[in-house]
Structures are given as C-alpha cells and as structure tokens.
Amino acid sequence: MATKIRLARHGHKDYAYYHIVVADSRSPRDGKIIERIGSYNPNNNPAKVDLKFDRALYWVNVGAQPTDTVRNILSGEGVMLMKHLNGGVAKGAFSAEEAQKRFDAWKAQKDAKNGKISQAEADKKAAAAKALLAQEVETNKAKAAEVAKKRQEAIDALAAAAVEAAQEAASAEAEATEAAE
Questions:
Q1: What is the CATH number of the domain that holds 53?
Q2: Domain encompassing residue 65
Q3: Residue 61: inside a domain
Q4: Cα separation of 153 and 148, whole Å?
Q5: Domain count, the chain
C-alpha cells in the first residue's frame, strides 16, 4: 500500500485549516485516513503548526511520501533534518548524541527567528493600538471642550434669563409700589 503524508482540509470558506494525515494514496483528500499526525493553520502569522514529531519521523522513515506542501512543513519543523541526521548515524559518520546536538542547535536558531517575527508583529499591533488610543483621546478632549462650551453657553443664557426676570420682577414691584402710593 502506497502511503502519503498530506493535508486534509477543514474549516469554512475563506478560513481553511488543515490536518496533517497519513493516508492511502488512493483515498480521497478528506476521506479515510490511517493516522492524524498534526495540524496546520496558515491563517496566523507565522503559520501555526502542531505536529507529533516522533510519529511524523516514524512515517517518513518507513517510506510514506509527503506531498510538496507537507514536505515544506516537515522541513520547517525539522523532521526531514532529523531523518538526514539519523541516516548519518546509521552510516557511522557521527554519533546519535552529535546528531541530537546538531538538531537542538538548529531548533534553537529557528525558534529565535520565529520569536523575533512574533515580537515584531506584537510590537506593530501595540504601536497601532497606542496611536489609535492617542487619536481617541484627542477626539474625546475636543468633544469634552465642545460640550463644556455648550454647557457654559446654556448656563450663561439661564443666568441672563434669571437676571432679566429679576429685573422685570423688580420693575414690576416698583411699578406696583408707585401705583399703590
């Protein structure tokens, strides 16, 4: 039986994510599978990959053929590098400890690179949020000044009306006292 390591599509329109599966090459894309070994979500930046590393390495070692996209994913996760290093161990070029040491150094370098990308994205989002907040604060200050101006105008109008009413009342009272005399 020819086995393939390939992607099975899930999700909905315009938001696809994929399961990384081992399946018979004759089965349909989303059909019967032998084993699910991970997931791939290209909607994140960087794309999120969850992979059962040991199972992926097992299937690659027993001859399962990855598709082009899955080969890139497995290379990015280090499965293909580990297969290569294990081949060197089998030939006697270096020891298993040396192979693990080389793999760990590669993984640390890759994680540092991805950490920088994630940090840059987070910084960009934080700067955009800070700029939006500053703009909103300025807008709120302008609205508050406008509201304060309208309140002051209303208070001034009420005070003027009160003064005018008091003057009318005083003049009416003065007229009433003059008429009474």
A1: 3.30.1320.10
A2: 3-77
A3: yes
A4: 9
A5: 1
Tokens representing 129 are: 């949020």
pTM of the model: 0.64
- The residue length of the chain stands at 181
Tell me whether residue 100 is in a domain.
no
80-88: long-range contacts at Cβ-Cβ below 8 A with a sequence spacing of 24 or more? 81/106, 82/53, 82/57, 83/57, 86/61
In order along the chain (181 residues), what is the average pLDDT of each group of 10 residues?
A: 91 94 92 94 88 94 94 93 91 90 91 81 89 93 93 91 86 79 66
DSSP string for residues in the chain: --EEEEEEEEEETTEEEEEEEEEETTS-TTS--SEEEEEEETTSSSPEEEE-HHHHHHHHHTTPEEPHHHHHHHHHHTHHHHHHHHHHHHHTSS-HHHHHHHHHHHHHHHHHHHHHHHHHHHHHHHHHHHHHHHHHHHHHHHHHHHHHHHHHHHHHHHHHHHHHHHHHHHHHHHHHHHHH-
Residue pair 24/34 in contact (Cβ under 8 Å)? The answer is yes
